[in-house]
């Protein structure tokens, strides 16, 4: 049995990872530590395949005493660290929480893991793993002809979010080199799929389209992202934990390069087909260009040769298939959507972010 601490497991990717792990692995026992910020919800953990192997604890990763107690009680041999403030636009309007959770929180988690995984005479146990989930945004922005980001590309973050993730990556790396804590890091591109909070592009567009609301496109909409279906990301993380070399970084991506306008167009086409009676068809007419995001990265692309060659992982769900599945999931989960719509802080965020962009 593997005793696992998952942080941020009530958020988008963390909850998908817990579903994935309980479906595919019988010998795992999970403690899920999540503060349940606006981005986390216990509804994301409904219908788990084997719920007795999942134990939820509401708490903050910056709370050292709580972490200490959890490590003492559960004797973890694996930490999978998702918890973070994750939205670039929020980091522009209020960076402080990003510094606290993403940098301070990662530091506290590393410290507690180090303390509990220390062996005799200051050695560190090598049969454990601290896996850190990071992002392609730490590498900055590419021009149209530039080669894709590799694991050795210079770190050059452009938003407070990306800078806080880069700082946490550096801390994780340093615990390997200084204390021989067996760590690994995955830097992944844009995820999409079930349970993604509708402040991010794809779910926001699906929800606004259904409601006949404007589809806000920042700037000219020619920015490029490398989209990966979330289940492929979960499989990549588990592959690296099982087969990856401690101390190493692995880039993960979806091998595609659509512009934001192309993505929005694809979603509108899927909804045109799935909602033939919609009064808002063709949905693409709802597109509205708004003021650009400050420091907006123009293009991301991931070179995934290392994880492919060394560990045999590659994406299996292509963009068209992934978008079909994602749109279908949101159409089938109106209750989940309604509960978010009912939250006042969600409406406040939407107003705050988009009013500013209309001016
Ligand atoms: P998310 O915002 O959906 O979820 C974050 C979760 O962390 C939430 O459940 C929240 O309650 C929890 N959390 C926040 N602060 C906390 C704290 N102080 N203590 C405990 N829990 C806390 O994020 P996501 O999109 O699922 O991203 C998960 C991780 O993956 C993040 O580290 C992010 O940087 C990284 N990542 C995301 C993407 C993407 O496209 N979404 C891509 C690459 C990497
Ligand atoms: O690349 C990985 C990153 O992907 C993760 O590290 C982040 O946690 C995750 O939020 C995501 O960041 P992005 O900023 O790329 O994702 P977002 O969905 O916010 O935006 C995707 C693109 O769409 C980006 O170019 C901005 C644009 N956009 C976004 C929103 C919300 C719009 O044009 N309109 C919008 O309303």
Please explain how this structure is put together.
- Helix 5 links the parallel strand 5 and strand 6 (183-188).
- This protein starts with a strand and ends with a helix.
- It is α/β, with parallel strands linked by helices.
- The strands form 3 sheets. Strands 3-2-1-4-5-6-10 form a 7-stranded parallel sheet, sandwiched between helices.
- The chain contains 12 helices and 11 strands.
- It has a domain at 2-196 and 228-257 and 296-317: Rossmann fold (3-Layer(aba) Sandwich).
- It is globular and about 70 Å long.
- The mean pLDDT is 97.
- It has helices at residues 12-24, 64-74, 88-93, 96-116, 160-179, 201-211, 230-243, 260-274, 305-311, 319-332, 334-341, 344-358, and strands spanning 2-7, 28-34, 54-58, 78-81, 129-135, 183-188, 191-192, 215-218, 228-229, 249-252, 287-290.
- The structure holds nicotinamide-adenine-dinucleotide (NAD) and 2'deoxy-thymidine-5'-diphospho-alpha-D-glucose (DAU).
- 2'deoxy-thymidine-5'-diphospho-alpha-D-glucose binds next to helix 6 and strand 8.
């Amino acid at each position: 049995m593997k005793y696992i601490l998952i942080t941020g497991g009530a958020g988008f990717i963390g909850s998908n990872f817990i579903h994935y792990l309980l479906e595919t692995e019988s010998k795992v026992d999970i403690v899920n530590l999540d503060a349940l910020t606006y981005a986390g919800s216990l509804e994301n953990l409904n219908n788990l395949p084997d719920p007795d192997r999942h134990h939820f604890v509401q708490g903050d990763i910056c709370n050292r005493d709580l972490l200490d107690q959890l490590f003492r009680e559960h004797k973890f041999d694996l930490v999978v660290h998702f918890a973070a403030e994750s939205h670039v636009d929020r980091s522009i309007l209020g960076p402080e929480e990003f510094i606290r959770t993403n940098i301070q929180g990662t530091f506290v988690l590393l410290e507690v893991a180090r303390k509990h995984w220390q062996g005799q005479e200051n050695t560190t146990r090598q049969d454990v793993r601290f896996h850190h989930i990071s992002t392609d945004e730490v590498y900055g922005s590419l021009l149209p002809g530039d080669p894709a980001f590799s694991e050795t590309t210079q770190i050059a973050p452009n938003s407070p979010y990306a800078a806080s993730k880069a700082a946490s990556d550096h801390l994780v790396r340093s615990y390997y080199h200084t204390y021989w804590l067996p760590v690994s890091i995955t830097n992944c591109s844009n995820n999409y799929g079930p349970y993604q909070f509708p402040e991010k592009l794809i779910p926001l567009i699906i929800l606004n389209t259904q409601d006949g609301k404007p589809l806000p496109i920042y700037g000219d909409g020619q920015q490029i992202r490398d989209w990966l279906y979330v289940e492929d990301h979960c499989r990549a993380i588990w592959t690296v934990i099982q087969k990856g070399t401690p101390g190493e970084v692995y880039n993960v991506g979806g091998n595609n390069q659509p512009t934001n306008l192309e993505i929005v167009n694809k979603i509108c086409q899927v909804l045109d087909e799935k909602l033939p009676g919609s009064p808002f068809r063709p949905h693409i007419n709802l597109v509205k260009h708004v003021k650009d995001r400050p420091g907006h990265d123009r293009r991301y692309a991931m070179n995934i040769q290392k994880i492919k060659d060394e560990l045999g992982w590659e994406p299996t769900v292509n963009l068209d298939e992934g978008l079909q599945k994602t749109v279908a999931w949101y159409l089938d989960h109106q209750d989940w959507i309604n509960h978010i719509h009912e939250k006042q802080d969600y409406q406040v965020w939407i107003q705050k972010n988009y009013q500013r962009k209309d001016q």
